[in-house]
Specification:
It is built from 19 helices and twelve strands. It is of the alpha/beta class.
Length: 495
């Protein structure tokens, strides 16, 4: 048996799927997991693949030393282990087992981007640390994920052929292709360590928001009332146009699925408490830390938190007043408004996400390519959508684009859809249906297009109680002043 091209350390759901994908494309793979059941399951699946021509060989290692001995040099080891301290622990064990300076260790988990930066520093001279954020879940990893790579550039040259082979592919129009079809791979080297996991973090924040936007449209429609089947059919229709996306597609299918136990709509028997693994929270916290407005991503995180307060919500439902149901004058017109609101809010979410990436890239001096980022999200990942083709085009048309909402193609579309967006938000408010994400996206849009905001009063308040100073509209902004508020004869003091 030939030496393995790459090792997968961790053969759980994602590690096994990546290993099988690599085997599918003819690469020899070694695998190891401390759980013997995971090792045996991966080996069984690999044997089934090996019966087909053109597939790679799988080596089932029983320990780390055996794993390293089976690898061609430079040795490439992809870690598929939980994020956090376990990543450092496994790398240290690999070093103890004989890893050398030219060998490459790839973190494919959902690590915090600052951990990736720290690891590159800590392991300098001991190995080539590399990271690749993987999006698309189990199915993506198995048949074509979106891969966001970063770290040692020389390591990318070694890894690139494998990553581009197993990544999802799109055609010249940005439409997803099959696993073995030739097309543009959704895999790219994004920059120094931390860049890939940072972009994946923002991807997940956008994912949180996009899911919440769809749920809010569903909530309003369910109060009209429309059945789950009818809402699903509407979503399926919307998915044929500008809203086409993986998340809307699966939402349509979910809503049209019956529970096999009760035969009621499946969605109606699912408890309304949403879980979260924290990457959306990381995005919201990071936006607050760097001062970039990303209210819709934050509201999506808050919405999940409020869904967890089930007992409190049930109690409050009986105690707090609620408006009378609002019957729309034109049922079809309201659905059109919801469609326009969903599209417009979706664009606003991407604007927030790309603004956050741009700000951090500038601070970290990462040479990020927004065109490449939009392109690798077109297939293989959870937020894959038709709109990403238009986003990549917007950045091709203007590489210095300050905000996605200012792209002529999007500003024109939203100008036409904004009235429906406003009517949909107003209908939800008057009906007592919470719409935190879609309404916050509208406020973001209105804030962006406001040449003057009430922050003048806010800064005056800060100067009043804390002497925080202010700038004047009739003077250069760098000149700062303070007003002597306590004196009867107020005086301005230049600082």
């Amino acid at each position: 048996m030939s030496k393995s091209d790459i090792a997968l350390l961790g053969l759980g759901v994602m590690g096994k799927s990546l290993a099988l994908n690599l085997l599918d494309h003819g690469f020899n793979v070694a695998g190891f997991d401390i759980n013997s059941l995971n090792r045996d399951n991966a080996a069984k699946k690999a044997r089934e693949l090996s019966q087909q021509s053109g597939k790679g060989d799988f080596y089932n290692a029983s320990n780390l030393g055996e794993l390293l001995a089976n690898l061609a040099t430079p040795r490439v080891i992809a870690l598929s282990v939980p994020a956090g301290s376990i990543v450092d622990s496994v790398i240290d064990q690999l070093i103890a087992a004989g890893l050398e300076a030219q060998d490459i260790v790839i973190d494919t988990g959902n690590s915090l981007w600052t951990d990736s930066e720290r690891r590159e520093r800590n392991y300098q001279g001991k190995l080539r640390f590399f990271s690749t954020a993987v999006s698309g879940g189990e199915v993506g990893a198995r048949f074509g994920p979106s891969l966001m790579a970063s770290g040692d550039l020389s390591a990318w040259q070694v890894v690139k052929p494998m990553w581009q082979a197993i990544a999802a592919k799109v055609d010249q129009h940005g439409q997803p292709l099959g696993q073995f079809e030739s097309g543009e791979p959704c895999a790219a080297y994004l920059g120094p360590a931390g860049a890939g996991h940072y972009v994946k973090m923002v991807h997940n924040g956008i994912e949180y928001a996009d899911m919440q936007l769809i749920c809010e449209a569903y909530h309003v429609m369910s109060q009209l009332p429309l059945s789950a089947q009818q809402i699903g059919a509407t979503f399926a229709k919307w998915n044929q146009g500008v809203l086409s996306s993986y998340l809307l597609e699966i939402s349509a299918e979910i809503l049209q699925t019956s529970d096999p136990v009760t035969h009621q709509p499946f969605v109606d028997i699912v408890l309304d408490k949403a879980g979260q693994k924290g990457t959306g929270l990381w995005t919201a916290v990071n936006a607050l830390q760097v001062g970039v407005p990303a209210p819709t991503i934050a509201q999506a995180v808050f919405a999940r938190a409020q869904s967890g307060q089930k007992a409190l919500r049930v109690k409050a439902a009986d105690m707090l007043s609620k408006p009378s149901p609002l019957a729309p004058n034109d049922f079809d017109a309201l659905l059109d408004d919801l469609h326009d609101a969903l599209f417009s809010a979706k664009v606003a979410v991407y604007a927030q996400g790309f603004d956050l990436i741009k700000t951090t890239a500038h601070a970290e001096q990462w040479p990020l390519d927004f065109i490449a980022i939009a392109k690798i999200w077109r297939a293989g990942c959870i937020i894959r959508a038709q709109i990403l083709q238009d986003i990549s085009q917007a950045y091709q048309d203007d590489s210095q684009l300050e905000n996605l909402l200012l792209a002529p193609s999007f500003s024109a579309q939203i100008s036409g859809k904004a009235p429906g967006w406003r009517r949909a938000v107003a209908h939800a408010a008057l009906s007592g249906v919470p719409m935190p994400a879609i309404s916050s996206a509208l406020s973001y849009y209105d804030g962006l297009r406001s040449a003057v905001l009430p922050a003048n009063l806010l800064q005056a308040q800060r100067d009043y109680f804390g002497a925080h100073s202010y700038a004047r509209v009739d003077e250069p902004e760098h000149r700062r002043y303070h007003l002597t508020w306590s004196a009867s004869d107020k005086q301005q003091i230049e600082l």
